[in-house]
Amino acid sequence: MSRVRCWRPWWALGALFVSALAFAASIAPAELAVLCANAEDQAQCGRLVEARQLRRLSRIVERDGDELRVSLAPFGLTVFRDTINITGAKSYAVWDYLESLDTLVLFTTDGDRSGFLLVQRHGGEEYRVPSQPILAPDARPVVTADFCAKDGDNQVAVWPIEPNVLRNEPTRGPAAARACVS
């Protein structure tokens, strides 16, 4: 389930930290700040990032209107469809690609909630994570951090990577809720 995220400068701060650890595929913090400076909401910022990412990832993912199609390896396809319902809009946008894991990172929104979804191309497994995943320098494991007073996990989660399996290890977090950081 996606978690409520505070729409604050966490984009720029998170992108700065992630860019130091992630592969060159990630959007640079300065570019992210420029892309999303005039975005009216999180979903629009996600789509602006996606427009940049689709150029270089056209062999594995494509957008056709409200459908985002991800090619699976060695064959297959999974489709994510943006929808609007009585509780708000649900959207999916390409955020990043973890090449060493052959895993696509999608930014998701569901009403006022946002999060990330990892889609492994081999096998099509999907993993919801509370914040932008950070890949360790040795490409194992993935780490997420989510500290938000409202509906946050208040934890740092380590996700060890095994062939075609991502699992959540025991986590650590503060005893009391903190201001929103993810």
Protein described:
This protein is an alpha+beta fold. 19% of the residues lie in helices and 36% in strands. The chain contains 3 helices and 14 strands. The strands form 4 sheets. Strands 1, 5, 6, 7, 8 and 9 form a 6-stranded antiparallel sheet that branches. Strands 2-3-4 form a 3-stranded antiparallel sheet, with no helix packed on it. A 3-stranded antiparallel sheet has the order 10-11-12, with no helix packed on it. Strand 13 (161-162) and strand 14 form a beta hairpin. Helix 1 packs antiparallel against helix 2 (29-36). The chain is globular. The two termini are 16 Å apart. Mean pLDDT is 77; it is low at 1-24.
Rg for CA atoms: 16 Å
Provide the succession of SSEs.
EHHHEEEEEEEEEEEEE
- Taking pLDDT < 50 over at least 5 consecutive residues as the criterion, the unreliable ranges are 1-24
Report, as a whole number of angstroms, the end-to-end distance. Answer: 16 Å
Quick one: biggest sheet? 6 strands, antiparallel
Task: List how many beta strands DSSP finds.
Answer: 14
Please, how many helices?
3
